[in-house]
Amino acid sequence: MIKTRFTEMFGVDHPIVQGGMQWVGRAELVAAVANAGALGMITALTQPTPDDLRKEIARCRELTDKPFGVNLTILPAIKPPPYAEYRQAIIESGIKIVETAGNKPQEHVDEFKKHGVKVLHKCTSVRHALSAERMGADAISIDGFECAGHPGEDDTPGLILIPAAADKVKIPMIASGGFGDARGLVAALALGAEGINMGTRFMCTKESPIHQLVKERIVANDERETELIFRTMRNTSRVAKNAISTKVVAMEKEGAKFEDVRELVAGARGKMVYATGDADEGIWSAGQVQGLIHDIPSCAELISRIVHEAEAIIRERLEAMMSGGKRQAAE
To answer: 3-state DSSP call for residue 294?
Structure first.
């Protein structure tokens, strides 16, 4: 068992988080992650209304008696969702762990803290992590450039970002972006994190509520099969490479504005990818970690494998290097 400040604070067995993913963070996946001893997150805005979120939380409770959380992502939107009402639904449902992400979550953090909710804030830079710490977040999820979704505009990969943040952030921190196996977990712990957050890897599990053909596409893809869209708009998003993302990038190079690509990138089209299995139907999120995903296990199999292999790497591979060094010094 690998115990860290993160597992102690959030009351889970393993230092692994299934972060919020639009259209993917539903009860069946979250409960499977929780039952396997890791921390699952329902994605609040996947649910069309705050009442639907209440129902989804209740559905998840029927499937697990272990702790799980809810992700609330605050992003610029043409028509912003009623964040305060979603927040109220989370609090009234008795949820005690929330993953926040996006723009200045101060009012949300304050309100959650008032009700004894632990806040894990996801950010993509050291300065934002320090700002979240000052805001009262209980823990940080630091997201490197490799990640699916929004990597920020600094382009700092995890190998630099995680230790840079660990040098300055005092509260527990988990590493996000590019994690999918035991090697990543051990590396994250070595770099100063207290655990890992995985998105794309959890999309590719038996309980993930997306089409089997999309899961097979992730397995088939290598680490080069992503595209960075909205770079020119300074709202970069890493998505799976397909006919649409390639077209959007080409249009941006020609000077396209958001309204020119709006129809192509519509969320409803991305949702259809997961429903129909047609990977070219719309924009969908996937990280560079696709290159490390070679199967579609259950969440229990995946988490158990990562933890056991991580323990073996620490005990056997790394320990052997230490004792090998001692032997040579003695000779």
So the answer is: coil
pTM above 0.90, yes or no: yes
Tokens found for residue 24: 């993917």
Look up residue 176 and give its two tokens: 């996000």
Largest alpha-carbon pair distance within the chain?
71
Q: Domain for residue 219, yes or no? A: no
Is residue 129 included in any domain, yes or no? yes
What is the reported pLDDT for 76? Answer: 72
Rounded distance, CA 331 to CA 322, Å? 15
- Cα dihedral 223, 227, 231, 233 sign: negative
Give mean pLDDT, residues 47-58. 98
* Two structure tokens written together for 186: 């051990």
Q: Are strands 39-43 and 196-198 parallel, antiparallel or unpaired?
A: unpaired
User: Do residue 25 and residue 107 come from a single domain?
Assistant: yes
What CATH number is given to the structural domain containing 183? 3.20.20.70
Assess whether 44 and 171 both reside in one domain: yes
> Is 104 a residue whose pLDDT tops 90?
no
Helical axes 83-92 vs 50-63, angle rounded to 10°:
30
Strand partners, 65: none
For residue range 168-188, list pLDDT tens digits in order: 999 999 999 999 999 999 999
Give yes or no: residues 135 and 59 share one domain: yes
Do both 155 and 9 map to the same domain?
Answer: yes
Structural domain count of the chain: 2
Are residue 162 and residue 26 in the same domain, yes or no?
Answer: yes
Supply the pLDDT for residue 313. 97
For residue 233, give its domain range.
226-285
Q: What angle do CA 275, 28, 224 make, to 5 degrees?
A: 55
What is the 8-class DSSP label of residue 66? S
Claim to verify: residue 241 and residue 157 sit in the same structural domain:
no
**Residue 158: what residue type?**
G
Mean pLDDT confidence for 148-171? 96
